[in-house]
Amino acid sequence: MKKQVKKSGRAIPMRLNILFLCVFLLFSAMIIQLGKVQIFDGETYKNEVEKRENATVSLSVPRGKIFDREGNPVVDNTSLRTITYTKMKGVKSEDILKTARQLVDIIEMPQEDIDKLNETDKKDFWMQLNPKLAENLVSKKEIDTFREKDISGKKLDKKIEELKRKRVTDKNLQELTEKDIKVLAIKSKMTSGYQMAPQIIKKDVSEKEFTIISEGLANLPGVDVSVDWERVYVNDGLFRSVLGNVSNSDEGLPSERLDYYLVRDYSRNDRVGKS
């Protein structure tokens, strides 16, 4: 009987040691996981939170109609099905590119928007698609030379980008496919304005395009469908000097009165009357 008690007394410390070891391993695992979340995944979670922040986005509303004394419309508005994109906080260039690639399979961009793309647009896009090749366009020695001239920070980044752009050849640009160019046309529309302001990707879209985009909004972050408007002058050029004009979304606020409108909470791409 004495032997059994003695044996049991030795077993208790052993069990405690195993218990403490398990607790220690669990706490170690928690500390490692916490460090991983804070150090490695912290930026990712921060971006996700920023994307889901509530934000106020301004939308353009139709201007008033003008009637003659008999009640007939002189100036009217016509509605247009429109696809827009709003860049939210924390959205990266890669996210925009991913969305543009999704849209290119759904909407057909007007040829005039594709024709507006210049050589610089295409060179920048080629560099985004080929980051490693673009990186090799400027040597470390050349970067060190810039630093020796006390060029640093954003100024240094700008110099490097300009040098890379100059060294992108016509042969490089020929690597861009027809689909790549269409993706670029969509991406250019998406990034043409300011953050938190809806940018029109395409106006007067077909019913099919409008329906497909509407149904897939959950998988197209920042993309939305809306009904935009355009000014219609019933009598064409008659009395246009009296009736005036309205700027379009591409023109936005007139540069000569930019400060006047901005202090009154207008967005830069708002449409306003002009003489």
UniProtKB/TrEMBL annotation:
Cited Gene3D superfamilies: Penicillin-binding protein 2a (Domain 2), Penicillin-binding protein, N-terminal non-catalytic domain, head sub-domain
Pfam name, any one: PBP_dimer
GO molecular function, one term: peptidoglycan L,D-transpeptidase activity
Entry's Gene Ontology BP terms: cell wall organization; peptidoglycan biosynthetic process; regulation of cell shape
Pathway info: Cell wall biogenesis; peptidoglycan biosynthesis
Membrane topology per record: Single-pass membrane protein
Compartments, as annotated in UniProt: Cell membrane; Membrane
Catalytic activity: Preferential cleavage: (Ac)2-L-Lys-D-Ala-|-D-Ala. Also transpeptidation of peptidyl-alanyl moieties that are N-acyl substituents of D-alanine
Enzyme class: hydrolase
Stated name of the protein: serine-type D-Ala-D-Ala carboxypeptidase
